[in-house]
Amino acid sequence: YPDGRSLWFADAARAGQLPIVQLLVRLGVDVNEPANNDSVPSPEGVVVQAAREGHRDVVRWLLDRGARVNHDVDGRTRCFALTG
């Protein structure tokens, strides 16, 4: 999203700000939007960041709305949300 919503989404998930995560999803941000905070492209969404920071309420909310945790990269399946 060119208006910065994906960056806000990643920041809110990382900080455990569930009300902001919910608002951004209501405004159209996809729960599987890549986190876009690394210089290396990665398919993982903000659920990984929320999990790494221990924000179980955010993780559960995202998972309940279809957030993916398994991603195929270079022919291998990885799951950073559960291993990171």
Q: Which terms would index this structure?
A:
48% helix, mainly alpha, 2 strands, single chain, globular
Protein described:
The chain is mainly alpha-helical. It is globular. It contains five helices and two strands. α3 runs antiparallel to α4 (about 55-65). A two-stranded antiparallel ribbon has the order 1-2. Helices cover about 50% and strands about 5% of the residues. The chain has helices at about 5-15, 20-25, 45-50, 55-65, 80-84; strands at about 70-75, 75-80.
Strand content: 5-15%
Question: Alpha-carbon distance between the termini?
Answer: 26 Å
Protein structure class: mainly alpha
The global form is: globular
Number of helices: 5
Number of distinct beta strands: 2
User: Averaging pLDDT over every residue, what do you get?
Assistant: 81
**Backbone CA Rg:** 12 Å
Largest sheet: 2 strands, antiparallel
Helix content: 40-55%
Flag low-confidence runs: none
The side-by-side strand order for the widest beta sheet comes to 1-2
Produce the secondary structure layout.
Elements: H1 5-15, H2 18-26, H3 46-52, H4 56-64, E1 71-73, E2 76-78, H5 80-83
Antiparallel strand pairs: 1-2
Helix pairs in contact: 1-2, 1-3, 3-4
Write a concise synopsis of the structure shown.
The chain has 84 residues and is mainly alpha-helical.
